[in-house]
Queue: 3 jobs
Job 1
Amino acid sequence: MPDPVLPQSFLKKIILIITLLFGFGFSSNGQQFYVATSDLNLMRVTITPNGVLSEAVPSCASGQFFSIAVSGNKLYYNTLYGSLYQADLDNSGFPQARNCTLLPSYSTSSNALTIDKAGAIYFVNGTQLGVITPGSAKEIILGDMPYYSAGDLIFYKDQLYMASDQGIVKIPVNNPAAAEMYIPLPGKAIFGLTTVTDKGALKVYALAGGGSGTDLIELDMENRTVKGTIGSVPFVVYDAASNVESGQASIIEIDAITISRECSVLNKGHAEIVCKPHISQYTYTLNTGESNTTGVFGSLAEGVYHLTITADGGELPVETDFTVQAYPSQTPLLTVEKKNPVCDLTGQIKIDAGARNNEFNVIYNGVTFEMGHTFTGLTAGSYHYTVVTKAGCLVDEKDYALTQDVCPPIDILSVQFAPECDQFGKANVTVVTKDHPDTYTYTLDGVTNATGYFSSVLPGTYNLIITSSGGDKKETMVVVPDFRIVNKPQLVYIIKNAVCTALGQIRFKAAGDIKGAARIKHNGDLYELDEVIRNLLPGVNHFTVLDAKGCILDELDIEILQDSCEPVSFPNTFTPNGDGINDVFRPNQNSNPVYYQLYIYNRQGQQLFRSASVYNGWDGLFNGKAVPAGVYFLVAKYTMCDGKSYFLKSSLTLLK
């Protein structure tokens, strides 16, 4: 084993600490790889037939990458102070590193990292070789080597190699002390070592720093020689990594090809090709000439398709076939109800799938509606509707046309009149027109409405005006009948005037066509027809004739008179002497009892006289002879016109 010399890796660390710069690198497939620069930032390097290209890679840990390794789409990196992190590599479109996460259980403090096929991370710290196996709780030191690491590790054909300060060293992982110089590179500062894929084969490059740039030196690992410098990058590289640094060439692997119905195109197929994780950019090409980098193809007709997948990282192309089946129409049985616009009214369209309404929606003007929706406010023209599933996939497209229907003229069928029920002498008017789609405005006696019904209209002749929202207009004369005459019932009435203390009475009776008269209303009380209405005060009394519904047929003002009522009174003396003055004893002659009885007695109780008429009095005779002067007694019974009866006992004096 040769004596160790001062490793250039120490110089690299010293320079980084002094400058406080950080570098990192990303791995790539094939002719692409990632490097950590001397300022600890990330670049992606691509080897092309036209030269070496490089581009900055945004990341979640800029200025922190010191040593790097890649496995699949995972990036592992050490910071300048020995912390180990992992991040996700995203090479779709513009490359970038996301989701940087600290692995707190490990502290490698190394300037060289790589990863093998099993996912074990190897690192070098000075001359010590260590490993972190998947699932282990702590790093393991495998042993010391007789060489210092200059800055990188790779696997090639299951053998571990290291960039040392003297050249490329081959390391037996089970016996690091047996490491040997494999390809001497005297005078070269090899900080980076990477493996790439070129047309399916592995190539190894050593990255030799010098000045402000880095040369890419191709190595012949089989013959342990240097092939030559293929180009350079304009920055100093501190570490490099690629997706094939495990020594296993990257290949294109198809994980799944999913064929389904195209959602946005009628009766077409949709193919989605999913490959295993990779960081090269894949190009997917069909035999139809269609090509993309997504692996998604739409609007595919029924048939067999030949697929070719190529990669920009040097992987060998992959070819396969897939079949798109026939996709029959899913269109449900639709019924369409259309209503054309007419006059100033807009039209309607309703699209219905019956019992399958809950399976579909309808899109109109970019807005989604439930199947069975009625589209309103439509003018004449053509309307395009898209039928989709509830998931939004296209099922059918329909176009329906509406035409402008002719607006019919105003046609008055009748004008109907009826008496107002509770307003005597007034009528209600109903204008009946032929059915029409537009809106009519009716005007009668200064009143305007949209119903054609007018209330509380007095008898007379009026001008009826009807206008339509469609632009038509019609005028006609309307004669409102006088229902006070037309509906007047033929009745007679019998009056009994008020007399004495008795109030008046009246009774109505039919005398012909009573026009449905059923009751008489007076002072808020209702009476049946032919019923005696009593207790009428003298004077004018108001009576309302009603039909069975309580509607007014007639109104009458009838006067109840106060008949004369003179009570009976008697004088207390009379002189039957033949002088013609006060010769007869009788009551006042203007009295008008309906019943009358008068009895006269002498002191012995003998009845001398009897009369049943106020006009028949006592002349002072009894049995034809004059009775002597003196005091006599009378008894009177009488009833007045109000039915009130009286009984009177008194005395009278007969004078000679």
Job 2
Amino acid sequence: MHYLRLFLSSLLLICTIKIAFAAFPIPNSGNTSGMEMVRIKAQTLEDFGSIAGTVTIDGKNAIVTFWDPDSIDILTPPGVGIDRQILITPNAGGTISGGLFSYNPPEILNVSPGLLNAAGGQLVTITGNNFGTSQLGNPILSINGEMVPASNINHDNISFFMPPGTGTGIPIQYSIGGQSSGSYTVDYKPPLLVRLLPDEACTEGGDTIILFGLHFGEGSNAPQVLIGNYSAQNILLSDHMLMVVTPPHEPDFKEVVVTIGGQQSNTISFKETAPKILHLIPSEWNTEGGIPVTINGKNFSPLGANTLRINGDLVTIDTHGASSLTFTAPAGSGSNNTIEVTSGGIKSDPFIFHYPVPDLTSISTSGNSTFGGFDVTLTGLNLGDDIATRVYVNGSEASSVVVSNGTQIQFTAPQGTGTNIPVYIEVGNQRSDSLFYDYELPSLASITGPFTNDENAFIQILTNFISDQNTDMQVFINGKEFFGFNPGPTILLLQDLPSGGGTNNEVYAIVEGIQTNTLNFNYPPPIINSLNPSAITPGDLITINGNSFGTEGAPLNAFLNGTLMEIYSHTPTELKLIVPPGSGTNLPLVIQVGNQPTLPFPVSYKVAGQTEEVQVLGSLKIENLGAVLGNTVLAVGPDGKVSRLRLPMLKVSTIGDTLYLGKDQFVIIPGISEANR
């Protein structure tokens, strides 16, 4: 085929330039840089003559290194293109066609650097063969189909500045002299993300974020930005900066990826975006709940991946949005309640809210007994429920509490006394103001006793109130405070009554600052049972036995025939009196305790010479008796007190006999050396 083409070309040349002879080159192609050794063979002998002439290829002089009539050796000049005419000019004149010579097509072997900046402007070198020079033809360098000027072209390398671009497999092609190289592909560097500013965004979208990095290109390829699985609108600002408007998204989205020209960047993450509660509408609601509430905030899940807890309890969300949630308020109470929203698995900080403080507006009772047990009804607002509400009466928690609709409370009144009894409630940790009710006034119902007026005397009082050791109570008898009482359920026991006697003794109590009514009681009237001795002598110490004489210090007087007697000693059952001067028989002896006298007890003075019988309960030994008849001796009792004892008649046979005078009597006779009991 080559020879046929050469032959036809030679014929055409002979015809056009009227050259008589023709030849052909061997080889018929070579590098654009020239200096290729080519031999031109003549078709017949002595075609070229014997004297050297000149040879041109495409009008450019070749270097002749050998000339023979039938062959010429040359070194090719630089050139480009195919089928370049070889003309031989012998020294003898004329022009001979030397055939056609083709320069080899350009060939790209390598491009350096291998990865190119998307911003362009990078000096790139192509190495290869047969690029020619700009003087040899019209070189054309194209990148991705676009012509790019070369800054320098040599036969084996080309230098140029890379234009901006993105992607991979970018074709580079070079043409000169009508011949083109094969396509050589290069890659731009993939986009590189360095940081985000700001590095967080709200879930409702619309935030402007700047992505900083490299190799975003210059707009020839629109970047695609993915935030999580959401495509984000973006504006390319420069090769190293993208402005992104965030789309609505879930709170847990983090990763940002940029894809440009089919190349994906590294991944960079937003900070974890926690949901945030800003405020509630309404800001508080009544304790019974049931009203719609809106949470305004940000970074909630717009797709419904939210959960809501109030004080740790799960609450159903009615509607979901990126910046608002709605729910129906549950019943509750107290202050410092917490609301938390979890969106996409990320929990918000607790938001503190308060239920309204309970407000009591009225109180009514079905009774007022100090024994309690009657119903108390409270009305008001935000009174809570059966679980959260506590009722306090006088500081103590009440029982049987029933709350209705958060507006009414009924409970059973405890036992108590007094007026202005404070009642308040606590709902959660919030306390209402107090309302007040009154118990009936404390009163004493009846009194029993005393049955004696000795040191063990007591009385029992029935009351309309219940008291115990913690009850603030005082008891008064005849205007003086009495401490010997024991409180009990509806009973007051007054023990160890004070010395006293008579009737209409007053007793009352002061209970929780309130004075009761007054009751009266009577001491038992005194009674005389016996007198010893039965006949009395002025100055004698006599003993009266009986009951209800009271204790020492009681208001007691003794009268003999109206004359006040001297009291020697005093017990509830025995009195010792000193007989006043007087005489007579069946005189009235009266003992009066308080305003209560005994019945008159008949008493007679002794008559002179009267013998008295003495009950012998002990003995007395007397030595050196002497004359004692009619003498007065001193009688000493066991209490150490001395009284006079007249012995009108004393029968003793001899000294040393025993004298029987009675129990607990010591007798001392003047002039007697010793007296023993």
Job 3
Amino acid sequence: MKRAALLLRCSTNIQDYNRQKLELEKVASRFKLKVAKVFGEHVTGKDDIRKGNRKSVDELIDACENDEIDVVLISEVSRLTRNFLYGVTLVDKFNRDYSIPIYFRDKRKWTIDVETGEVNLEFEKELRKAFEQAEEELASIRFRMASGKRDSAGLGQWFAGIPPFGYTRQKNGYLVKNEYAPIVKEMFDKYLEEGQALITTTRYIYGKYPDIKKLKSIGNTKFILNNKAYTGRAEANIYDEIDKVTDTFYFDIPAIIDEETYNKVQKKLANNRTTTPYPKATKYLLQKLIKCSICGAFYTRLHSNKRDTVHFKCTSDKNSLTGCKSQVYLNERIVNPIIWNFVKEQLFYVGKMNVEQRLEAIAGENDNKSKAIEEQEALKISYKEQETKLTRLEDLYLDNDIDKNRYKERKSKIEKELSSIKAQMDRLTDRIRLSDFNIKRFNSTDFTEQYFKEVEADLEKQMKVLREYVKGIYPLYIDKVYCFLKVDTIEGMFNIFYEPRKAQQKCAYFIKDTLAQYHPDIRNFYTPNNTLLTDSDEVDAYYTLEEMKEICSKNGFEVRYRE
């Protein structure tokens, strides 16, 4: 017996929800299907897919991917969605990615023949029209609702939704809620007291009224203090679907606070340190450059008063729901000079070049850039050709001129080719960007000892130079001895490692990823072009960290630093 999933959807009426369920259970019985899953929720018809699928659709897709169902039953086309593009895409996904038939009760048709497994192409075309009609119907419903609201507004009748905290709703407007209105007034008065801020006001009010969870949030406190409706003048907005404009209407409601108190609060809020940026935000050299290797979040700069030290660490486990457990700390006094001296090492050699060498290098980079642009233009043409092929293939399939297996096979080949071309174009874009950077370097006569001394005396300039070369820093501990940094630069990825606990050494080692890649699972470096680094005859080789230290030292791949 095939397993069926019921997809239900209604806005507010629980009876409608139960009716859909009962009707689809009868359909399942008629087709001798076992109801294995029921997915459904109370949602509106607007289907704002920019915020993602409905929860029930996500759960349905998961069930398909986990092979928990064989068919899907839906009451009406509009119950799936009222968005044309989303509906067509979703049906195509179920037909071609999952090969799972959908039965629409209002159409009395399957998207896929349950016996032969063939896609019903004619019904696909019919569904396109049905989704288009559903979308037009939704626009019409919205327009009628907006017109009704405008009529109410014209008569001075309140039409908006949830009333502000401190009010209750009645037929033609809002009434003051006697048990909550005094709390609103107390909040305004408390905030105006000397020394009070949003956080202290929130703590005071919530501490006094702990049963009202709404008062726990600083955001809610700020929202209440900003809401002019409490002065007796409420506003509501209506969006015009036809002219694409928003109309604002004002209504008189009972006041809880006076205009003078409201204005005083707004003046204080405008100067509140939590609502205005700090005039001189703290800046530091590696700001927005260090990213967690586990969750990708930026590292936070933290100061320890007890030890009088500054370090970086990932704090996303406290600030979000990522659950990141990274324990990698970086001491600012060590990592700052390592990264800066590394960048200087990469840039400083340009300052030692004579005019002839610079011109030769610039000519070489211009040549590289021209070739990359030429290759990229050719790839753009190839990409468009493949896109055209894919469109023609889909048309053939929809017109039933090609069988399903042949369609999937050819589609897979085209998509792989598109992916390959896109990757090549991205690499060429990086190459062009690198050439531009190098041309700028070779044209510059700035990279001298004196230049770097001047830059180091100005944090803004130092940050600018650093960011022109470094795109990101990804730290991880190799073990308790070494600290390892993956440094993404304009010239590619570099591996930098050092021993933070060896206070006397003050030396870090670096090597480009194309020369040696670190494998944390075996704690070794792999060198694909070993003869470029050593005197060995071996084409490739594996090295421990201690061995790689010696190789880097012999090749000059090291930077000295002072804390």
